[in-house]
């Protein structure tokens, strides 16, 4: 098997060396490392160029500097599409991979051809240097069910291993607002091929000022919630096409029914945010299997009626 790593960078000088070292020091070396920089201005580009040259990595590592700023979503997905590996590993600029990450995940994928998207647990790494391992380290490979909470994503994109078949199919249903972790999670989910390996294989750096954290805080208002719901409705349309048209997907009717139910729940939430009609709360409470978290309904009520 050929293994591709796709890293995206943007002003990452503070932590980039540790991540590059952890990739270079993998027991199982990657056959291709593609690094897509989105216009860094802090020296990241020059540092990566020197790192590649000084370590003799020119044959397998390649730095591509985008001509225009794409944003992290598009940068990741287009980079994944440009890779050639049988297995593709998205990579952030500031984590630290355990030296057996590629070797372990490749072996799992070889031994389990039904897996289309594989994720792992992480050790949380905080800015003060503290590390906290995940609670589950039993080494089991667990299948993720598509029967409920299809919009809940339980793993960051930097722990994904994506099989080439799903990468190729992803080109048919992608929209620019989709994040790669969210998108490939759903494609693997409805292909009955999404699994998690209960073992930490990276140190995952947690930042309060990360792009994702900032976006999450900004989204706690009515306008942003409606925008998210509209994106989720787009997902329902694209997943319907995906399930309907892919000949390898089984249990189509049941999966389409789950997607249809989620569409109804989303439309109810949208009406609630638009109108504030309290009678909709009871109807929304009947869709607990669709909410990302059980307490999310209370969050909807709080944002609509209390938070400004």
Secondary structure layout plus pairing:
Layout: E1 3-9, H1 16-24, E2 32-37, H2 44-54, E3 61-65, H3 72-82, E4 87-91, E5 96-97, H4 101-111, E6 117-126, E7 131-132, E8 141-143, E9 161-163, H5 164-170, H6 180-190, E10 194-206, H7 211-218, H8 222-245, H9 252-275, H10 279-284, H11 296-305
Parallel strand pairs: 1-2, 1-4, 2-3, 6-10
Antiparallel strand pairs: 4-9, 5-10, 6-7, 6-9, 8-10
Helix pairs in contact: 8-9
Beta content comes to: 15-25%
Low-confidence stretches: none
CATH architectural arrangement of the largest domain: Alpha-Beta Complex
Q: Strand count, sense and closure of the main sheet?
A: 10 strands, mixed
- As a whole number of angstroms, the C-alpha radius of gyration is 20 Å
Shape: globular
Q: Care to count the β-strands?
A: 10
Helix fraction by DSSP (H/I, runs of at least 4): 40-55%
CATH topology (fold) name of the largest domain: Spore Coat Polysaccharide Biosynthesis Protein SpsA, Chain A
Element-by-element helix/strand order: EHEHEHEEHEEEEHHEHHHHH
Look at the helices and sheets and give the structural class. alpha/beta
What features would you describe in this structure?
The protein has helices at 16-24, 44-54, 72-82, 101-111, 164-170, 180-190, 211-218, 222-245, 252-275, 279-284, 296-305, and strands at residues 3-9, 32-37, 61-65, 87-91, 96-97, 117-126, 131-132, 141-143, 161-163, 194-206. With 308 residues, it is an alpha/beta fold. A hairpin with a 4-residue loop joins strand 6 (117-126) and strand 7 (131-132). Helix 8 packs antiparallel against helix 9. The longest helix has 24 residues, at 222-245.
């Amino acid at each position: 098997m050929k293994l591709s790593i796709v890293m995206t960078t943007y002003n990452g000088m503070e932590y980039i060396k540790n991540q590059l070292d952890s990739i270079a020091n993998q027991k199982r070396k990657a056959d291709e490392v593609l690094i897509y920089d989105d216009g860094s201005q802090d020296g990241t580009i020059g540092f990566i160029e020197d790192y590649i040259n000084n370590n003799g990595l020119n044959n397998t590592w390649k730095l591509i500097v985008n001509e225009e700023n794409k944003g992290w979503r598009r940068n990741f997905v287009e980079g994944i599409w440009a890779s050639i590996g049988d297995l593709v590993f998205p990579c952030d600029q500031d984590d630290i991979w355990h030296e057996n990450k590629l070797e372990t995940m490749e072996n799992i994928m070889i031994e389990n051809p039904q897996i289309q998207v594989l994720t792992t647990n992480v050790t949380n790494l905080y800015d003060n240097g503290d590390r906290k391992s995940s609670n589950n380290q039993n080494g089991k490979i667990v299948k993720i069910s598509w029967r409920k909470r299809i919009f809940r994503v339980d793993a960051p994109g930097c722990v994904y291993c994506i099989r080439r078949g799903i990468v190729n199919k992803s080109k048919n249903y992608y929209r620019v607002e989709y994040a790669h972790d969210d998108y490939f999670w759903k494609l693997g989910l409805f292909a009955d091929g999404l699994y998690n390996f209960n073992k930490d294989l990276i140190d995952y750096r947690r930042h309060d000022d990360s792009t994702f954290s900032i976006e999450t805080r900004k989204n706690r208002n009515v306008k942003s919630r409606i925008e998210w719901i509209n994106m989720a409705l787009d997902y329902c349309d694209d997943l319907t096409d995906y399930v309907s048209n892919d000949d390898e997907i089984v249990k189509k009717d049941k999966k389409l029914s789950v997607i249809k139910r989620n569409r109804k729940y989303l439309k109810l939430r949208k009406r609630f945010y638009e109108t504030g009609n309290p009678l909709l709360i009871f109807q929304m409470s009947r869709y607990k299997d669709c909410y990302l978290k059980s307490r999310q309904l209370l969050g909807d009520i709080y944002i609509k009626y209390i938070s400004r």
